[in-house]
């Protein structure tokens, strides 16, 4: 299996390198950059010393097609929409990590991303790659839109309740928190150490680009889901996302029933771990791994259900899930090359 990464110099790209370097089915991968053609990755990432010696290559789609079977585009939104059609035209399979192919309605994309949407044909052709809940076989997919980091954590947490119609769809609240690698490698006033350290920030209130993505998927599962409430916070940690979600139960439920529902829903999914009753996950318990850990609680006094899910934003929230999708596209075990034990403590 020969693979190319476009955007290797970014955090998503470097995480793909960490995975593909030890993936048993990947015989070769090449690294491409729009701005650092000919440079060594070790100039920006000395931790790759003696692991990657080849210089970065330019993004030449024909050359990539002559060398690779599949490409990961770990590039910013707006850029992917320009690159992806050219790569597909060359016959390559593509897994795009950006938001460019996730929203089926191009008007939603233009509204929430404030950018021009990509080609309609590929927008509709793209398979939304929430791996555990895929509705189509990825073996025939040419383009996979890898889900956003927050949507991955939120959707895996809500899916069993929504599919079983156990919550009032109009009462869903998703309270989410992330580490700073979610913002990519370029520093900004938002992520600057002196402003982020010892601090907790709420951002993009009612404007986050993941709102329509979460709503699109939830609505496809249950048409009664309308607008959700979703808030995002930035914490002074490197990796990790926690989503704490609340909704009113539609009927009388009890914790054993809810716990069994989650255990049953994910019994065949290696990467989704349902915690024992009363044990809640923390982000460090999935650090550097492809796991999504979930707990559920029920408050009889308010008739409200609470779900907590944690992921590593760069793994299950981006590059890990992208490789899980690659494995499925190629008909391999979905866990191949991804069985990292979380880095703890
Ligand atoms: N960080 C995260 O936790 C997550 C990120 N994502 C998405 O994944 C994608 C990559 O994110 P991330 O790695 O964090 O971002 P970074 O900003 O860290 O890296 C993006 C990379 O894109 C490349 N790039 C920039 N402009 C262009 C261009 N015009 N043409 C080609 N390549 C370009 C840059 O490399 P170079 O200049 O060398 O070409 C850069 O290294 C984004 O779309 C992001 O939204 C999704 C889920 C989670
Ligand atoms: C801290 C931070 O800024 N996180 C990003 C995470 C989104 C992301 O990484 O990208 P996609 O839009 O491709 O999903 C944000 O909230 O926008």
TrEMBL record:
Cellular localisation: Cytoplasm
Keyword Amino-acid biosynthesis attached: yes
GO terms of molecular function: N-acetyl-gamma-glutamyl-phosphate reductase activity
Key words, A-Z: Amino-acid biosynthesis, Arginine biosynthesis, Cytoplasm, NADP, Oxidoreductase
Main location class: cytoplasm
Top enzyme category: oxidoreductase
Metabolic or biological pathway, per its Swiss-Prot or TrEMBL entry: Amino-acid biosynthesis; L-arginine biosynthesis; N(2)-acetyl-L-ornithine from L-glutamate: step 3/4
Pfam families: Semialdhyde_dh (PF01118), Semialdhyde_dhC_1 (PF22698)
Record has NADP as a keyword: yes
Catalysed reactions, semicolon-separated: N-acetyl-L-glutamate 5-semialdehyde + phosphate + NADP(+) = N-acetyl-L-glutamyl 5-phosphate + NADPH + H(+)
Enzyme Commission number, as recorded: 1.2.1.38
Positions of the Semialdehyde dehydrogenase NAD-binding domain: 2-141
Catalytic center residues: 149
UniProt record similarity statement: Belongs to the NAGSA dehydrogenase family. Type 1 subfamily.
NCBIfam families, per the entry: argC
Annotated function: Catalyzes the NADPH-dependent reduction of N-acetyl-5-glutamyl phosphate to yield N-acetyl-L-glutamate 5-semialdehyde.
Protein known as: N-acetyl-gamma-glutamyl-phosphate reductase
